[in-house]
Amino acid sequence: MSRLLCQFSCGAASAVATKIAVQAWNPELVMVLNADIAAEHPDGRRFFADCEKWIGRTFTVLRDEKYGADPIEVFRRRRYIKGPNGAACSGPLKRDLLRALEQPGDILVLGYTAEEEERYDDFVEAWPDRKIIAPLIAQGLTKEDCKAMVLRAGIRLPRMYELGYDNNNCIACVKGGQKYFRAIREDFPERFEALAQVEEDIGPSAYILHHRSGPLKGQRFPLRELSTDGPVQRNEKLPSCGLFCEVAEQDYSE
Ligand code: SF4
Q1: Of 41, 39, 31, nearest to 8 (Cα)?
Q2: What is the mean pLDDT of residues 68-86?
Q3: Quick count: other Cβ atoms within 10 Å of Cβ 101?
Q4: Which of 93, 96, 184, 220 is most buried, judging by how many CB atoms fall within 10 Å of its CB?
Protein backbone atom coordinates (compact mmCIF):
# COMPACT_ATOMS: atom_id res chain seq x y z
CA MET A 1 0.00 0.00 0.00
CA SER A 2 1.27 3.50 -0.87
CA ARG A 3 1.82 6.37 1.52
CA LEU A 4 -0.97 8.94 1.58
CA LEU A 5 0.23 12.54 1.81
CA CYS A 6 -2.45 15.00 2.89
CA GLN A 7 -1.85 18.69 2.88
CA PHE A 8 -3.44 20.54 5.77
CA SER A 9 -3.30 24.28 5.09
CA CYS A 10 -5.27 25.47 8.12
CA GLY A 11 -8.26 26.05 5.83
CA ALA A 12 -11.69 24.37 5.86
CA ALA A 13 -11.33 22.57 2.51
CA SER A 14 -8.05 20.88 3.31
CA ALA A 15 -9.41 19.90 6.74
CA VAL A 16 -12.42 18.10 5.22
CA ALA A 17 -10.37 16.54 2.38
CA THR A 18 -7.96 15.15 4.97
CA LYS A 19 -10.77 13.94 7.23
CA ILE A 20 -12.36 12.01 4.34
CA ALA A 21 -9.12 10.64 2.89
CA VAL A 22 -7.58 9.24 6.08
CA GLN A 23 -10.62 7.17 7.05
CA ALA A 24 -9.95 4.40 4.55
CA TRP A 25 -6.17 4.29 4.89
CA ASN A 26 -3.77 2.39 7.08
CA PRO A 27 -2.86 4.98 9.75
CA GLU A 28 0.80 3.92 9.54
CA LEU A 29 0.90 5.09 5.93
CA VAL A 30 -0.79 8.47 6.35
CA MET A 31 1.14 11.72 6.63
CA VAL A 32 -0.77 14.93 7.23
CA LEU A 33 1.57 17.76 6.34
CA ASN A 34 1.35 21.39 7.30
CA ALA A 35 3.67 24.23 6.34
CA ASP A 36 3.91 26.61 9.28
CA ILE A 37 4.28 30.14 7.90
CA ALA A 38 5.12 33.12 10.11
CA ALA A 39 2.80 35.43 8.14
CA GLU A 40 -0.38 33.39 8.67
CA HIS A 41 -2.92 34.53 11.24
CA PRO A 42 -1.98 33.13 14.67
CA ASP A 43 -5.45 31.63 15.01
CA GLY A 44 -4.37 29.11 12.38
CA ARG A 45 -2.48 27.23 15.11
CA ARG A 46 -5.70 26.95 17.18
CA PHE A 47 -7.52 25.59 14.11
CA PHE A 48 -4.62 23.18 13.53
CA ALA A 49 -4.93 21.77 17.05
CA ASP A 50 -8.74 21.47 16.78
CA CYS A 51 -8.49 19.63 13.45
CA GLU A 52 -5.74 17.33 14.68
CA LYS A 53 -8.18 16.12 17.34
CA TRP A 54 -11.11 15.90 14.90
CA ILE A 55 -9.18 13.98 12.27
CA GLY A 56 -7.47 11.81 14.85
CA ARG A 57 -3.95 11.91 13.41
CA THR A 58 -0.79 13.68 14.52
CA PHE A 59 0.11 16.23 11.88
CA THR A 60 3.67 16.79 10.66
CA VAL A 61 4.71 20.45 10.73
CA LEU A 62 7.20 21.60 8.10
CA ARG A 63 8.90 24.93 8.68
CA ASP A 64 11.46 26.71 6.58
CA GLU A 65 14.53 27.69 8.62
CA LYS A 66 16.48 29.69 6.06
CA TYR A 67 14.00 32.59 5.90
CA GLY A 68 12.35 32.11 9.28
CA ALA A 69 9.23 30.93 7.34
CA ASP A 70 8.56 34.60 6.57
CA PRO A 71 7.58 35.72 3.03
CA ILE A 72 8.87 39.25 3.66
CA GLU A 73 12.31 37.85 4.48
CA VAL A 74 12.25 35.82 1.24
CA PHE A 75 11.43 38.94 -0.76
CA ARG A 76 14.06 41.02 1.00
CA ARG A 77 16.86 38.53 0.49
CA ARG A 78 15.92 37.39 -3.02
CA ARG A 79 15.03 40.94 -4.09
CA TYR A 80 12.02 39.60 -5.92
CA ILE A 81 8.33 39.30 -4.99
CA LYS A 82 6.41 37.74 -7.86
CA GLY A 83 6.35 37.40 -11.62
CA PRO A 84 5.20 35.09 -14.41
CA ASN A 85 6.69 32.10 -12.58
CA GLY A 86 4.70 32.76 -9.43
CA ALA A 87 5.49 34.21 -6.03
CA ALA A 88 9.02 34.04 -4.62
CA CYS A 89 7.72 32.85 -1.22
CA SER A 90 5.76 29.71 -2.04
CA GLY A 91 8.78 27.71 -3.22
CA PRO A 92 11.09 28.01 -0.22
CA LEU A 93 8.30 28.22 2.37
CA LYS A 94 6.11 25.38 1.03
CA ARG A 95 6.98 23.53 -2.17
CA ASP A 96 10.62 22.75 -1.37
CA LEU A 97 9.65 21.35 2.04
CA LEU A 98 7.32 18.84 0.42
CA ARG A 99 9.84 17.84 -2.20
CA ALA A 100 12.35 17.05 0.53
CA LEU A 101 10.19 14.29 1.97
CA GLU A 102 8.17 13.04 -1.01
CA GLN A 103 8.86 9.48 -2.18
CA PRO A 104 8.04 7.74 -5.45
CA GLY A 105 4.63 6.07 -5.24
CA ASP A 106 3.17 8.52 -2.72
CA ILE A 107 -0.46 9.46 -3.27
CA LEU A 108 -1.26 13.14 -2.85
CA VAL A 109 -4.61 14.19 -1.42
CA LEU A 110 -5.69 17.42 -3.11
CA GLY A 111 -8.10 19.76 -1.36
CA TYR A 112 -9.68 21.14 -4.54
CA THR A 113 -13.37 21.81 -4.00
CA ALA A 114 -16.25 21.07 -6.42
CA GLU A 115 -15.97 24.57 -7.87
CA GLU A 116 -12.26 24.02 -8.58
CA GLU A 117 -12.65 21.09 -10.95
CA GLU A 118 -10.82 22.93 -13.72
CA ARG A 119 -7.77 23.36 -11.53
CA TYR A 120 -7.91 19.68 -10.72
CA ASP A 121 -8.06 18.86 -14.45
CA ASP A 122 -5.05 21.12 -15.04
CA PHE A 123 -3.17 19.26 -12.33
CA VAL A 124 -3.98 15.89 -13.87
CA GLU A 125 -2.90 17.14 -17.29
CA ALA A 126 0.36 18.52 -15.95
CA TRP A 127 1.16 15.41 -13.93
CA PRO A 128 -0.36 12.41 -15.75
CA ASP A 129 1.85 9.90 -13.92
CA ARG A 130 1.23 11.28 -10.47
CA LYS A 131 -1.06 9.44 -8.09
CA ILE A 132 -3.61 11.87 -6.71
CA ILE A 133 -7.04 11.83 -5.16
CA ALA A 134 -9.42 14.75 -4.72
CA PRO A 135 -12.08 13.67 -2.20
CA LEU A 136 -14.02 16.94 -2.26
CA ILE A 137 -14.52 16.83 -6.03
CA ALA A 138 -15.36 13.11 -5.86
CA GLN A 139 -18.12 13.90 -3.36
CA GLY A 140 -19.25 17.18 -4.94
CA LEU A 141 -18.34 19.25 -1.88
CA THR A 142 -18.00 23.02 -2.26
CA LYS A 143 -15.99 25.35 -0.09
CA GLU A 144 -19.15 26.43 1.71
CA ASP A 145 -20.02 22.76 2.35
CA CYS A 146 -16.59 22.30 3.93
CA LYS A 147 -17.03 25.31 6.21
CA ALA A 148 -20.43 23.97 7.29
CA MET A 149 -18.97 20.52 7.99
CA VAL A 150 -16.20 22.01 10.11
CA LEU A 151 -18.72 24.06 12.08
CA ARG A 152 -20.95 21.01 12.56
CA ALA A 153 -17.94 19.19 13.98
CA GLY A 154 -17.90 21.86 16.69
CA ILE A 155 -14.79 23.60 15.39
CA ARG A 156 -14.63 27.37 15.05
CA LEU A 157 -13.58 28.49 11.58
CA PRO A 158 -10.20 30.21 11.25
CA ARG A 159 -10.28 33.87 12.26
CA MET A 160 -9.52 35.03 8.69
CA TYR A 161 -12.80 33.47 7.52
CA GLU A 162 -14.63 35.14 10.39
CA LEU A 163 -13.19 38.47 9.28
CA GLY A 164 -14.64 37.81 5.82
CA TYR A 165 -11.57 36.62 3.89
CA ASP A 166 -11.94 33.87 1.33
CA ASN A 167 -9.09 31.72 2.57
CA ASN A 168 -6.46 31.34 5.24
CA ASN A 169 -3.48 32.33 3.09
CA CYS A 170 -0.76 34.50 4.64
CA ILE A 171 -1.94 37.91 5.76
CA ALA A 172 -1.08 40.28 2.87
CA CYS A 173 -0.71 37.41 0.43
CA VAL A 174 1.01 38.71 -2.67
CA LYS A 175 -1.52 36.87 -4.86
CA GLY A 176 -4.15 39.44 -3.85
CA GLY A 177 -5.42 42.35 -5.92
CA GLN A 178 -6.34 45.96 -5.18
CA LYS A 179 -9.62 45.28 -3.35
CA TYR A 180 -7.96 42.67 -1.17
CA PHE A 181 -5.08 44.98 -0.29
CA ARG A 182 -7.46 47.78 0.69
CA ALA A 183 -8.99 45.34 3.17
CA ILE A 184 -5.57 44.31 4.45
CA ARG A 185 -4.58 47.95 4.89
CA GLU A 186 -7.65 48.45 7.10
CA ASP A 187 -7.38 45.20 9.09
CA PHE A 188 -3.62 44.60 9.28
CA PRO A 189 -1.90 47.95 8.66
CA GLU A 190 1.45 46.71 9.98
CA ARG A 191 1.51 43.80 7.50
CA PHE A 192 0.52 46.12 4.69
CA GLU A 193 3.33 48.48 5.68
CA ALA A 194 5.94 45.70 5.86
CA LEU A 195 5.12 44.60 2.33
CA ALA A 196 5.00 48.18 1.05
CA GLN A 197 8.42 48.79 2.59
CA VAL A 198 10.05 45.77 0.99
CA GLU A 199 8.50 46.76 -2.35
CA GLU A 200 9.99 50.21 -1.99
CA ASP A 201 13.39 48.81 -1.00
CA ILE A 202 13.56 46.55 -4.06
CA GLY A 203 12.14 49.12 -6.49
CA PRO A 204 9.60 49.21 -9.35
CA SER A 205 10.35 45.67 -10.55
CA ALA A 206 8.80 44.42 -7.29
CA TYR A 207 5.48 46.29 -7.48
CA ILE A 208 2.71 43.73 -7.19
CA LEU A 209 -0.36 45.76 -8.23
CA HIS A 210 -1.11 47.12 -11.65
CA HIS A 211 -3.61 49.56 -13.08
CA ARG A 212 -6.70 47.74 -14.35
CA SER A 213 -8.01 50.48 -16.65
CA GLY A 214 -7.39 53.98 -17.95
CA PRO A 215 -4.33 55.36 -19.73
CA LEU A 216 -1.96 53.52 -17.36
CA LYS A 217 -3.69 50.15 -17.79
CA GLY A 218 -1.27 47.27 -17.25
CA GLN A 219 1.41 49.41 -15.57
CA ARG A 220 2.51 48.43 -12.11
CA PHE A 221 2.37 50.79 -9.16
CA PRO A 222 3.51 50.63 -5.51
CA LEU A 223 1.21 49.55 -2.69
CA ARG A 224 1.67 52.95 -1.04
CA GLU A 225 -0.13 54.52 -4.03
CA LEU A 226 -3.17 52.29 -3.71
CA SER A 227 -6.16 54.65 -3.75
CA THR A 228 -8.20 55.00 -0.59
CA ASP A 229 -11.52 55.59 -2.32
CA GLY A 230 -11.75 52.32 -4.29
CA PRO A 231 -13.70 49.19 -3.35
CA VAL A 232 -12.69 47.00 -0.43
CA GLN A 233 -13.26 43.27 -0.78
CA ARG A 234 -12.17 40.85 1.92
CA ASN A 235 -13.47 37.79 0.11
CA GLU A 236 -11.62 38.45 -3.14
CA LYS A 237 -10.85 35.00 -4.55
CA LEU A 238 -7.15 34.32 -4.21
CA PRO A 239 -5.47 31.26 -5.68
CA SER A 240 -4.92 28.82 -2.89
CA CYS A 241 -1.34 28.38 -1.81
CA GLY A 242 -0.64 24.91 -0.59
CA LEU A 243 2.12 22.38 -0.68
CA PHE A 244 0.63 20.52 -3.62
CA CYS A 245 -1.10 23.08 -5.84
CA GLU A 246 2.13 25.01 -5.83
CA VAL A 247 3.84 21.92 -7.13
CA ALA A 248 1.51 22.01 -10.11
CA GLU A 249 1.83 25.72 -10.66
CA GLN A 250 5.59 25.43 -10.66
CA ASP A 251 5.29 22.74 -13.24
CA TYR A 252 3.19 24.92 -15.55
CA SER A 253 5.72 27.72 -15.32
CA GLU A 254 8.57 25.39 -16.06
S1 SF4 B 1 -0.05 32.36 0.88
FE2 SF4 B 1 0.66 34.04 -0.47
S3 SF4 B 1 2.24 35.11 0.72
FE4 SF4 B 1 1.91 33.11 1.70
S5 SF4 B 1 3.46 31.76 0.82
FE6 SF4 B 1 1.60 31.55 -0.45
S7 SF4 B 1 1.85 33.08 -2.11
FE8 SF4 B 1 3.32 33.58 -0.48
Answers
A1: 31
A2: 93
A3: 13
A4: 93
Residues 20-31: b if buried by 16+ CB within 10 A, e if exposed: bbbeebeeeebb
Instruction: Phi first, then psi: give them for residue 32, nearest 5 degrees.
Output: -105, 115
Whole-angstrom Cα distance, residue 164 to residue 236? 9
What is the best residue among 191, 241, 243, 245 to mutate for testing ligand 1's pocket, by most ligand atoms within 8 Å of CB?
241
16 in a structural domain: yes
Instruction: Supply the residue whose CA is at minimum distance from atom 4 of ligand 1.
Output: 170
Number of domains in the chain: 1
Q: Could you tell me if residue 64 is inside a domain?
A: yes
Is the Cβ–Cβ distance between 25 and 174 less than 8 Å?
no
66, 93, 96, 170, best to mutate for ligand 1 pocket (most atoms within 8 Å of CB)? 170
**Residue 210 lies inside a defined structural domain of this protein:** no
* pLDDT for 217 beyond 70: yes
Neighbour count for residue 41 (Cβ, 10 Å)? 22
Model confidence over 117-138: pLDDT tens digits?
A: 998 898 888 888 889 999 999 9
Average pLDDT over all residues of the chain: 91
Residue 69, pLDDT above cutoff 90: yes
Instruction: Judge whether residue 250 has pLDDT over 60.
Output: no
**Lining residues, ligand 1, CB within 6 Å:** 37, 39, 71, 87, 89-90, 93, 169-170, 173-175, 241
Does the pLDDT at position 253 exceed 60?
Answer: no
The one-character DSSP state at 34 is E
The answer to whether residue 22 is domain-embedded is: yes
Report the CATH number that the domain containing residue 135 is assigned in CATH.
3.40.50.620
